[in-house]
Design a protein that fits this description.
binds zinc ion; three-stranded parallel sheet; alpha/beta
């Protein structure tokens, strides 16, 4: 072994030694870290239970946690119905063999007259939730709806997504349509149906303050999907109960076909009549006035 070889051997031994030591240190470090972690965990658990004990000494918030209750998500329809059961209706009394047919989005000159023909043929009165700008476009159809003994409700002026509107826009959508309906029917409707069934809590409160009752539905025909007559009839008949409010449409968006809905009507009417169910308007079903005389919605109810 020359000098150079000796030196290399010494260096290798030193490296091995250091390496060995370092390996040993790593094992100890890991054990220490684990112990420290256990101590931290114990301290945290102790602190938590201490915090919980301290909290229990303070009376709890009776209405639930702020973080939950005040979360700014809009209320679902079911929640709104639960919170405002008299203002927000989905059905009538369950103990009477009565149901209401309701038709949204009219008037138009394509499907609304066909719906009216079927209703007339079967001597059934229904409720039409009308859109203000369509009333302006087809006043003669509104006159026919009224003349043939049907009821009308407010379905906004332009069919917007109401929760997205500012309060003044929302009020205008409602009040403008009230005036238009009053011009043809002689009453300002008590019943309003928000487009898409969408509404927020502030809006529900305002409508309640104005004397409105919101009428949604508990039987959805899904007729706007362009279904066949059998599919529409099946959607209605398989979900019907006493007191049901049935949603159909008497007009659609441009290009939407409601033929299936119109053709399903005789089948729905015949079947339910056979079962001893009678068809009544929403005001009869809910035993409320259908509207009001004069400018306010709270004065002079019209039966
Ligand atoms: Zn609608």
């Amino acid at each position: 072994m020359n000098m150079r070889q000796k030196w290399l051997a010494a260096l290798t031994a030193a490296v091995l030694l250091v390496g060995g030591c370092s390996g040993n240190n790593a094992g100890q470090d890991a054990q220490q870290a684990q112990r420290q972690e256990e101590r931290n965990e114990q301290a945290l658990t102790a602190k938590r239970s201490e915090g919980q004990t301290a909290q229990r000494r303070t009376p709890n918030l009776a209405g639930g946690k702020e973080s939950k209750v005040r979360e700014p998500h809009p209320m679902t329809l079911a929640e709104l119905h639960m919170h405002y059961p008299t203002t927000f209706r989905l059905n009538g009394p369950l103990d009477k063999r009565q149901v209401s047919l309701t038709f949204d989005d009219g008037p138009d000159t394509v499907f609304t007259p066909k719906v009216l023909d079927v209703l007339k043929q079967h001597n059934v009165k229904a409720t039409f939730f009308l859109i203000g700008n369509r009333i302006e476009a087809h006043p003669e159809i509104v006159k026919r709806i009224i003349r043939e003994g049907h009821e009308v409700g407010n379905h906004s002026y332009s069919h917007p997504n109401l929760p997205k509107l500012k309060p003044n826009q929302f009020h205008a959508e409602v009040l403008r349509t009230q005036d238009l309906i009053a011009r043809h029917s002689g009453y300002r409707p008590k019943f309003i149906r928000p487009p898409y069934g969408a509404i927020n809590e502030e809006q529900v409160k305002w409508l309640a303050s104005q004397g409105f009752t919101m009428v949604n539905w508990n039987v959805d025909s899904l007729d706007w999907k362009g279904l066949t007559a059998d599919q529409v009839a099946d959607n209605v008949l398989s979900n019907i109960r006493h007191g049901s409010i049935i949603l159909q449409h008497s007009a659609g968006g441009h290009g939407e076909d409601l033929s299936g809905s119109v053709q399903a009507l005789p089948k729905i009417i015949k079947k339910l009549k056979e079962d001893g169910v009678s068809f009544v308007t929403v005001s009869e079903l809910l035993q409320l006035p259908k509207g009001f005389k004069g400018a306010g919605t709270k004065t002079a109810p019209v039966k």
